[in-house]
Specification:
Largest sheet of chain B: 6 strands, mixed
Number of strands of chain A: 11
Order of helices and strands of chain A: EEEEEEEEEEE
Strand content of chain B: over 45%
Structural class of chain B: mainly beta
Largest sheet of chain A: 7 strands, mixed
Order of helices and strands of chain B: EEEEEEEEE
Shape of chain B: globular
Radius of gyration of chain A: 13 Å
Helix content of chain B: under 10%
Oligomer: heterodimer
Number of strands of chain B: 9
Radius of gyration of chain B: 13 Å
Chain lengths: 121, 107
């Protein structure tokens, strides 16, 4: 069955950096675009970025462009999100989700359980 | 795009819950709906306006026309108590848009 497992979350000081990973199994990872979403404590869902199946195309939410970098390694079935210059407002749970073959899509049909990122001094 | 959802909806067990999602001409877009129970990851319950993913009960249905998309939950159960989010792809700006979410309470 499709499984997505995020890792790399934790407590980080403001201005620091973090790389989240999402290991995929149970499907042909290289055939799907992938999303990162996030959710601040007690708030709604937000989209962060999407990457095409081959990694050649990426879109970002405006607030994420410049500090967030989405990438993937299809040989390792792993999706990444690099976040730099972390701010307190980046605190929240980060989810990876499987998209579709194309990357002009909002749908996430399977989600991981999330990785908690806390930005605090 | 801005998607507008009521913050909360209450319904008695066994009744039908209608959760609207409003936006300008969203009937021409593909709408997706997610259920998020407390402390859990979101689950896709309706995609492409009306389609139910495998494993989602037939009690869940969707529609999308004009300026309103609606998630309908028939014969509501206590386990349906959750936050529900509508979502679409904004093809003009190449971004994903979520509604603010509706908290469904089962009385």
């Amino acid at each position: 069955q499709v499984q997505l497992a995020e890792s790399g979350g934790g407590v980080v000081q403001p201005g620091g950096s973090l790389r989240l990973s999402c290991m995929a199994s149970g499907f042909s990872f290289s055939g799907y675009s992938m999303h990162w979403f996030r959710q601040a404590p007690g708030k709604g869902l937000e989209w962060v970025a999407v990457i095409s199946h081959d990694g050649d195309n990426k879109f970002y939410e405006d607030s994420a462009a410049g500090r967030f970098t989405i990438s993937r390694d299809n040989s390792k079935n792993t999706l990444y999100l690099q976040i730099s210059n972390l701010r307190p407002e980046d605190t929240g749970t980060y989810y990876c989700a499987r998209a579709e073959a194309g990357y002009h899509t909002a749908r996430g049909d399977f989600w991981g359980q999330g990785a908690l990122v806390i930005v605090s001094s | 795009y801005v998607l507008t959802q009521p913050p909360s909806v209450s319904v008695a067990p066994g009744e039908t819950a209608s959760l609207p999602c409003g936006g300008d001409n969203i009937g021409g877009k593909s709408m997706h709906w997610y259920q998020q129970r407390p402390g859990q990851a979101p689950v896709l319950v309706i995609h492409y306006d009306t389609e139910r993913p495998s494993g989602i009960p037939e009690r869940f249905s969707g529609s999308n026309s004009g300026n309103t998309a609606t998630l309908t939950i028939s014969r509501v159960e206590a386990g349906d108590e959750a936050d529900y989010y509508c979502q679409l792809w904004d093809s003009v700006n190449n971004r994903v848009v979520f509604g603010g979410g509706t908290k469904l309470s089962v009385l």
